[in-house]
Design goal:
single chain; 183 residues; alpha+beta
Length: 183
């Protein structure tokens, strides 16, 4: 049985890191990237502890193990990880529906991952539905960016209800900024 919940222990954070390491783009083949998607940015335990102290991420557990996660990154977390600065800076310049993005209440999906052994079972959608249950009373929408070469992730986000609102290129990749409007 799969259970969606919020992170509550360092052991769960360690399990997130283990799952992340198995799916970072530098550790998987091009064939796997193309077919299964990939993660771009590595995190470490002290950073996850800081992020989760501000707002816990959503995880799915199966048999006591974390088999999927969707990382919550509030704007207050911006200073915690320099690699996310380009994304946050681009949000400052972005307008959506005729208003500056900062006029809305939103947070960032920092990263989503489902264990290879548990893919195709609806866990991606389950993660986002639990995000909506937990965070929609406080926020208008969730935003994230996805590498344009991560086809599986783009398709999955579209299926959940995200829409692309901006595309840009930085020194590392070309990114689609996507929003899931909860209003």
């Amino acid at each position: 049985m799969y259970t969606a919940t919020t992170v509550s222990t360092d052991q769960e954070l360690e399990q997130i890191l283990q799952l992340q390491r198995k799916n970072l783009k530098q550790f998987i083949s091009q064939e796997e990237k193309d077919a299964q998607g990939f993660l771009t940015i590595p995190f470490d335990l002290p950073m996850l502890q800081k992020l989760h102290a501000i707002a816990p991420s959503i995880i799915i557990k199966h048999g006591g193990e974390v088999v999927a996660y969707a990382m919550t990154v509030l704007l207050e977390s911006r200073a915690e990880y320099a690699l996310l600065e380009a994304m946050f800076a681009s949000f400052e310049r972005l307008q959506w529906k005729g208003k500056p993005l900062h006029d809305y209440r939103f947070y960032v999906m920092g990263q989503v991952c489902v264990s290879k052994e548990h893919r195709g079972k609806g866990l991606f959608d389950m993660l986002y539905q639990h995000h909506k249950e937990v965070y929609s009373p406080r926020f208008d929408f969730i935003i994230t960016e996805i590498s344009t070469s991560n086809y599986r992730s783009i398709q999955a986000h579209n299926r959940v209800g995200f829409e692309t609102v901006h595309t840009y290129t930085d020194s590392t990749d070309t990114w689609n900024m996507v929003i899931w409007d909860w209003r």
